[in-house]
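The freezer alarm interrupted the setup, so I double-checked each line after restarting. Inputs confirmed:
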Amino acid sequence: MGFELDYIFHPRSVAVAGASASPDKRGHTYFKALLELGFRGKTYPVNNRASEILGVPAYPSVRDIPGEVDYVISSIPNRDILDLVDACAAKGVKVLHLFTARFSETGFSDAADLEQELLRRARAAGIRIIGPNCMGLHYPREGISFDTTFSREPGSVGILSQSGGNAMEIISDGGRRGLRFSKAVSYGNALDLNEADFIEYLLEDPETRAIGGYIEGVRDGRRLFEVLRRATARKPVVLLKGGRTSAGTGAVSSHTASLAGSQAVWDAFCRQTGVVPAADMEELLDLLVGFTFLPPGGGTHVLILGGGGGGSVRSADEAEEEGLHPVPVPQDARRELTAMHPFFGPWINNPMDTSILGGSGLRVYDLLEALARSPAYHLIMVNMGLGMGRDPQDPSARATRALDHNLDVSRHTGKPLALVMDDALPRGEGRWKAGQELREHAMAQGFAVFPTVRRAARALRRVTEYYLDRGVGEA
Amino acid sequence: MGFELDYIFHPRSVAVAGASASPDKRGHTYFKALLELGFRGKTYPVNNRASEILGVPAYPSVRDIPGEVDYVISSIPNRDILDLVDACAAKGVKVLHLFTARFSETGFSDAADLEQELLRRARAAGIRIIGPNCMGLHYPREGISFDTTFSREPGSVGILSQSGGNAMEIISDGGRRGLRFSKAVSYGNALDLNEADFIEYLLEDPETRAIGGYIEGVRDGRRLFEVLRRATARKPVVLLKGGRTSAGTGAVSSHTASLAGSQAVWDAFCRQTGVVPAADMEELLDLLVGFTFLPPGGGTHVLILGGGGGGSVRSADEAEEEGLHPVPVPQDARRELTAMHPFFGPWINNPMDTSILGGSGLRVYDLLEALARSPAYHLIMVNMGLGMGRDPQDPSARATRALDHNLDVSRHTGKPLALVMDDALPRGEGRWKAGQELREHAMAQGFAVFPTVRRAARALRRVTEYYLDRGVGEA
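Predicted 3D structure, all chains:
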């Protein structure tokens, strides 16, 4: 299989069955996205009660469309689904994506039977199915999406998600973390195309540099194992598994009718395949941010710019608890600091508590650079928490300058830098905007931003270990 | 000791040594806070180069103040500190709080000697010292604070923090989580008054119903142990320990010159004293929110309103991983649901995926209430994540109505309810405002709001276990 699936992502024409004039309907959004995102092929709304949708002539059935149709998006009720698949067969449709749901996931045997009949007819006609019960494709470069509010800037992260809601959360929240996507596929009940197919495709896809996913069930464990082994040899693959617990497994069965497994089995599976497992959505995004923006580090010794005294203590504890090593200032760097200032030089530590520097005449930048140059440190973490959002007197320009200095240090030294920018809800809109701008400024320059020290430390450690395990980036 | 310390919190007059006209200086903020928060006693700015500060006549020395002075806040350089303590002795000052720093925490022996001499002279004159190297008191009801941007509404949470920065973070971020404070004390190097003194005071303080703290070192382990045993018998005590790791311990010594211990020792100490340990600042605030807003639950069986299919699966996994039990819908409640709808009734699960209900005519509220009434459930968790922030078509009024329904269910059943409201950074200001308003609406009605399912589940479990251990709230 693999890259043969590429045609699925490049249809020459797309029809939306159930395209609607009502903005509340998903059939509206699918069609609107094709227009707004600038899909270059032909687009056909299908609706048996409207003559046009969003200014484009509508057809009562897929059968009535004059030209060829490669790809059909279905948002019609499931009682009409066999008629639709027959119409697709008659038109020579290659791919049918079903937003349409209420099949096997309902737990009713007649719904499961309908799903199987749908599969039988599609297979007989050579139609590949995405879904049912899913959002389908988000491929901004091609102009196909299930939402019109996502960033349309193409990127390098490829996503597969068995859940449509989780796919939306990954793209939406990940977008706010600076992630941009090559393609994302929400594939629901995985009736035909499944997780192994999409991973195999993304592994070959030159637009995709890292793969992230949310998986509930495994349709063919042996094949998935083999595909993942090949994928992880080429690109980082970060997966969040739904249904790790007994309660989660129960929820999975009524969501995508999948058979989930236990946490222990999944952990072993990840170890053997080289998959980086994520514990939850927050960690999935943190790891994708790490693999997208952090260069390989040569080890786990971390230099921390702490953000105040208590913040420095907490940073040191959390970094060490997450497997990093905030090692003390080495002798030669200590001599350099002491030469810079006889009082503050011996007092400066790792983490650096910069709140002690008042009246010293020292610049944080110079201290940070002196330490960051030391071969004793492989990684840099900068906690902007206190400096940025809390001091109403702190002008945004000064914060931006401080930030740029920190980014410079990472560029000079080539060492991975994780920025911690507190996303605790700010009190005023002015501060919220200033914080947002600062964060976006950092992300636009290609830096990894995390909301807490613990999450930054965990991502730094896991990304570093990933590269060390593969012999990348060692000193 | 204990409540005898009450006089410290009720001075009849306060002088600020180093009061400044420059808004950048902390000596400005201390004095401004007294005026702005409406401190009812006499206030005296002390500054030897200004005739007035913020419109109030200034005195060159504490000695020159005409009336009695109970309480002095020092933000002068430490080279003048012995003169200040002598002046305080001459004036009969009872309490000296030193924002002034650079004593033993610098690691220099002359600075440590100065600190000891300061202590000797203060003791000889009967002056109690808060600090040095700390922010001092925040007591909104009395009109004393170290910041003018905090909420001034008094509350029931008492805080002690060895770090000033962490005290600010607790009050500021905690304030945005709906917490309001009786008193907070930042006590720095704990030269005289220490953690045991403040906990002993807060345990007796009728304004304080829960105690939270950040501690770096323990001055007298035996006394702290005994004080905490007494405190936890009366009120929940949640403590975050700085210096749990070797790196953290190193950072502690240059921050407040304290001797930190190991994680294992601290864990045992918490178990034996009944302290609820917090792993980090996020958990400290989550637990204080839990102890402030959640009634005792009778067990760990949780009903979850999931927020979509994938969100429901993730909620189930995370709740179970954090020690809660999202048990299946029991038979009698199942019959009730099926009577409400023959198709959707059997399909509804715990967690409830409400995204399946389209066209059912069922109201989420009715389903939630039917299940929440069941004795099978002790706790309720509602994930508002998807419903609230992401759908631009979702009018705020509808979200508020949905929220009010959920709150009603908790009120009717008397069961603890944790609301999960995603604080991922929203894209637009409009949504940010709508989300903020909804969150504040919930908090104003006395509900516990958490930013992620995992954090909500952990807080629910720990608060529930706390009460169960004490035999409170059992069925």
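Quick read of the result. The longest helix of chain A spans residues 396-413.
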